[in-house]
Design a protein that fits this description.
Strand order of the largest sheet: 1-2
Largest sheet: 2 strands, antiparallel
Structural class: mainly alpha
Number of strands: 2
Shape: elongated
Order of helices and strands: HHHEEHHHHHH
Strand content: under 5%
Distance between the termini: 19 Å
Helix content: over 70%
Number of helices: 9
Number of domains: 2
Length: 214
């Protein structure tokens, strides 16, 4: 392998990494926009549903409730919820999914309506931080390299997913695995150092140096 090939490989990995970081950032923006719109419409509905029920807004909220509830994750879950004047407890209670029908039937507890609003606000705040962190990563060339390496390592699992041999949840666990990220970071550091050394010394001289050290 020549020095030019080493530089080309480094550039390819960095371009792949940057491309993936940009895609991830775009997904965060889309989630943020959707959550913000959902919060705005929910607040609009909350403020008027008792006196002037807006069926169109209710339909929009209900039509998209599964998506927002899924996006919220633990932000939209009450581990233990006991309805007022009851002696039973709901486990892992999905607040928005369950509160919207109660609002339609005029039986919603005000504390649960406020809990839905608070969950959306907390989730949007989380996305604000995630977007800021994403921008910082996009500005970091080493992060491009690390993400590119991680993408190459994860490629076999993506192929298995495309073939239907593993589920999307298992693929996500693999991609977000801390060990995989650690390995990717280590390889990226070694690769970066090796690339710099090969550029300075020349690839063949660098290989001989490594062989001598071994």
């Amino acid at each position: 392998m020549s020095t030019v090939q080493v530089i080309l490989l480094l550039i390819i990995l960095m371009v792949i990494g940057l491309f993936n970081l940009l895609i991830d950032h775009r997904k965060l923006i889309e989630k943020h926009n959707f959550a913000s719109e959902y919060l705005s419409r929910f607040q609009q509905f909350k403020n008027s549903y008792r006196t002037d029920f807006d069926g169109e807004t209710y339909y929009w909220l209900t039509n998209r409730v599964s998506k927002i509830q899924s996006n919220l994750g633990f932000f939209g879950i009450m581990l233990n919820y006991q309805p007022a004047f009851s002696n039973y407890i709901h486990k892992s209670y999905q607040i928005i999914v369950n509160t919207l029908p109660e609002m339609r039937n005029m039986r919603a507890d005000s504390s649960m309506i406020n809990a839905c609003e608070d969950a959306l606000i907390r989730y949007i705040g989380f996305l604000d931080d995630a977007c800021e962190n994403s921008i910082n990563q996009i500005k970091n060339p080493f992060k491009w390299l690390k993400t590119g390496v991680q993408s190459i390592i994860s490629l076999p699992f993506f192929i298995l997913y495309w073939l239907g041999l593993i589920s999307s949840s298992f693929l996500e666990k693999i991609i977000n695995n801390s060990i995989l990220k650690l390995i990717s970071g280590f390889i990226a550091i070694i690769g970066f150092i090796a690339s710099i050394m090969s550029i300075i010394l020349g690839w063949e001289t660098f290989v001989r140096l490594i062989q001598n050290l071994l």
